[in-house]
Design brief:
Blueprint: H1 2-18, H2 28-43, H3 49-75, H4 80-95, H5 105-114, H6 124-151, H7 158-163, H8 172-175, H9 179-195, H10 199-223, H11 234-260
Helix pairs in contact: 1-2, 1-3, 1-6, 2-3, 3-4, 6-9, 6-11, 9-10, 9-11, 10-11
Keywords: Membrane, Transmembrane, Transmembrane helix
Transmembrane segments: 35-67, 79-102, 127-149, 188-208, 240-259
Length: 261
């Protein structure tokens, strides 16, 4: 899992950087991800020949992920490409993970020196994996959800939104506010509760989201004009909510499966 952990941290950092709404230079996101990848490899002593090959493959996949997902969010097309690229990279890294070095290096020495309560019996591999899953759920998970919504037409691309007049109908995302913030929080809570063995509490979090969103969905039903005068009705809002929620939950549950594997 060493290579996958490094990749998840790098992807998470890159996606956190580009989530700054265009305030950062165009190439800053992949650069931040690649630099993070190299620094982590250095401080964990992951520097064997096979490790270097895996890091190069991961860096190439990271650059491709940022480029293709950014293009898909702009024009709404070929959402399968970045999703397939990310999935393929994870499968390849997992498939050849037996060649990976056991992480140690300066990070292991620092953990022993710091004598942190939670790190007493925790290996560097475990720390890397948890860091990767947290960063992945914070930023990359949001992009995966957005790509799936674009693929099924439940979300409009950036180009379509920019070309619309101010009086145009809002898209479903405008009817349900806070998704980009609530999604990462929800995934992290599910991941944390699952790692603590509190699966019942995690299921309550999932159920609570539906209850909290129900008034907003009802409001959308009352305010939406009847077809064909409106392009966004209650069906669109419901599809956006259900698909986005299920994809977000699958990301969290997949992360939990990796963490507990």
């Amino acid at each position: 899992m060493t290579w996958v952990s490094l990749a998840l941290v790098a992807f998470g950092v890159a996606d956190l950087v580009r989530a700054r709404n265009g305030r950062m230079p165009l190439g800053s996101a992949p650069l931040a991800g690649v630099v993070t990848l190299v620094l982590l490899a250095v401080i964990t002593g992951v520097d064997g020949v096979a490790d270097v090959v895996a890091l190069v493959v991961t860096a190439g996949g990271l650059v491709g992920w940022v480029a293709t997902s950014r293009r898909t969010q702009a024009d709404g097309r070929r959402a399968w490409l970045p999703l397939g690229l990310f999935a393929s990279l994870v499968v390849v890294l997992l498939g050849f993970s037996g060649f990976a070095s056991v992480p140690d290096g300066p990070l292991a020495g620092w953990l022993r020196w710091a004598d942190l309560p939670w790190a007493t019996d925790v290996s560097v591999s475990r720390v890397l994996l948890l860091a990767g899953l947290v960063s992945f759920n914070l930023a990359t998970g949001n992009i995966i959800v957005r790509l799936v919504l674009l693929a099924i037409g439940a979300l409009r691309s950036d180009q379509v939104v920019a070309a619309q007049s101010p009086s145009a109908d809002p898209q479903p995302a405008d009817r349900l506010k806070g998704g980009r913030l609530l999604g990462p929080m929800e995934r992290l809570v599910i991941l944390g509760l699952g790692l603590a063995g509190e699966f019942g509490a995690a299921s309550i979090v999932i159920a609570a989201k539906g209850l909290l969103r129900f008034p907003e969905i009802q409001a959308a039903a009352r305010t939406s004009p009847p077809p064909p005068s409106s392009r966004v009705g209650i069906d669109d809002v419901t599809e956006y909510f259900l698909v986005g929620s299920f994809v977000s939950w699958l990301v969290a549950l997949g992360s939990l499966a990796l963490a507990r594997g």
